[in-house]
Amino acid sequence: MYGKAFAPEYQGSLTTLSVNSSLVDVLAEAAERLRAAERSGQPAEAARCGLAVAEAHRRLGQVRDADRAWKASYRAARAAKDTAAMAWALWSGGTLARQRGAFPLARRLLELAAELGERGGDVVVRGYSLAGLAETGRIQGDYTAVGRLHEQLLAEARRRGEARHTVWALEGIAQMHRNQGDYDSAYGLFEEAAEIADRADDRRGHAWALRGLADILSVRDGDTERALELLSEAEAGCRSMNLTSALAYNHKMRGNVCYRAGRYTEARDLYELALKEFCAMSEPRGAALARLGLAKSLARLGREHTETAAELASLAKTLDRSGLKHAREMVTRAQREFGLDTETAR
C-alpha cells in the first residue's frame, strides 16, 4: 500500500510544500526562507532551503541559477557539518549535470552523494542518488549495466511504500523495455506507474507515465487520437506545476505521434517548438531528439536530400561525442529510412 507522494527535497521549514506545488511558488517561498536563514546565521536551514531553490530553478530550466544554488547549498551544509544536507546538494548538482548532458560529472557527483547519504544515515538521499546513477546509464543506453540497479531500487521503494520512487523506477524500466521493442511489457509497467501516481497524487510522475502510454499506443497500436488525448492530459499537469522540461518532452512526443500518423506539418511545428524549449533550458539530449524529429519531418515535406543527409550526419557526430547510444541508433535508423549512407557520419 502506498501513501500520498511527498517531496523529500523540500526540507527544513519547507516540509509543508506539496510534491505538486507550482515550481514558481516553490522558488518564491524557498528563496524567502533562504534569505531569512542567511540573515539569522543558520547554515543548516540555509542548506535545506537552498536545495529547494536549486531544484526549482533546475526544473524551470534556469540552468545557471540552479548551478549557483546547489553549490551554495553545499557550502552552507558543509559549514553546518550536515553530511546528509551535503549529500542532497550533490544529488541536485548531479541531476543538473545529467540534464545538461555532462554525464561524467553527473556520475561523480551522484556517486559522492550516495556515499555521503550512507555516511549521514539518510536512506532517502542515498536511494535518490543511486536512482540518479541508474537514470544516467539508462539515458546513455547502458541497459545491461543499469537494469539490475533499476530493479533493486524498485524493490526497495515498494518495500518502503514510497510511491514517488516506485513510479520513477517503473517508468525507467518501462522505457528500457520500450526501447528494446517489448511494447507489451512497457505498456503494463507504464500503466502501473500511472495508477500508483494517480492514487498517490503525484502529478509529475503521472504526467511522465501518460507520456509513456501515449508513445506505446502510437507505435504499437497506431491509436493516434487516444495517444494525443493522453498527452493533452499530461500537458495540463505539466502546466499546473510549471514543469518546463517535462512539457518540452511532451511536445516532442506529440511530434513523434503526429509523424508516425503521417501528419508531417503538425510534427514539424511540434518539433520546432520542442527544440526551442530544450535550447532555452540548455538540455542537449532533448534538443538532439527534437532535431532528429524535425529533420525527418522536413524530409517528408520535400526538403532537399543533401540537406537531410548533412543534418543527420551532423547530429550523429554530436551524439557520438555525447555518448547517447540509443539516440545515436535512432539517427542510424533515420539515415536508412531515407536511403542515406550511414558511414558518412563516422
Automatic annotation (TrEMBL):
Alphabetical list of Gene3D superfamilies matching this protein: Tetratricopeptide repeat domain
InterPro entries per UniProt: TPR-like_helical_dom_sf
Domain of life from the UniProt record: Bacteria
Name used for this protein in its record: Tetratricopeptide repeat protein
Annotated source species: Streptomyces pluripotens
